[in-house]
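Whether sequence alone determines local backbone shape is best considered at the level of individual chains. In the encoding step, the backbone of a single protein was reduced to a row of integers, each denoting a local shape. For completeness, the protein is quoted in full, as a sequence line and a line of structure tokens.
***
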Amino acid sequence: MEIKILCPQWGQEHLDAEAFFAKVKDAGYDGVDTWVPESQKDRNRFVRLLSEYDLSMVSHQHQAKGQTINEFCKSFEYYLNLSLESNPILINSHSGKDCFTLDEQLRVIDTAENFAVKKTIRVAHETHRGRIGFGPVNSRELFGMRPKMKITADFSHWVCVTESYLEDFEKELDEAIKRTEHIHARVGFTEGPQISDPRNSYWEREVDFFLKIWARILERQQSIGTEVFTITPEFGPPPYMWVKLNDNEPVSSQWDINVFMKDLLKEKFSKVINKRP
């Protein structure tokens, strides 16, 4: 199985697309995890540069909106189509809202599934606060009603939402692992979705907890014969990144932390990188 480790554009939006791609390539990433520009001109340039820099992409949908569920699903499908223009490995989606009714959440999942089948692309719903996959209990309901639902595993949110290391949710975690198509490798803790710095030994327990979950996901993917699997180290800038009290400057470099996580993932999972089952 080949593991592609991708770089988030989140936190690097100040850079021109080409400067960002060059920085990503120089750092040893295999691709990027980001949204496509809404401007057709900018989007055409973005896609051309992706090819020129030989970078893979997981495309990100987070913009869908609407006052009614019909308006939302129409907007959702529009942004899924936009995401597809970058020829992504898959589309990672911030799907719906946690305030949606169960029926509305199912409408969002069905819209994504119909799109995925029609366009022959995988759509993974990110387990993110504020979205339909915000926690293990709500996800349990959705999993039971939609057997084909796939996810992007960002369990930093589940740890934060449940204020636990998921001790009471092993069945839900097992099911989520089976449905995982992509990983957002951020380490959270019981009071927040992001620890201050994974390089600090203070957070050794939390880092180890997440590494073990990610290992379970990769073992599952290896066992079912997956050829390419994607992971994005996704430590974010402020306000995800902790800041100093005196000047509100970040306590650490987001870029350096994500590079550290990239290298840690390669080290820990070297046995499955570029290996066939």
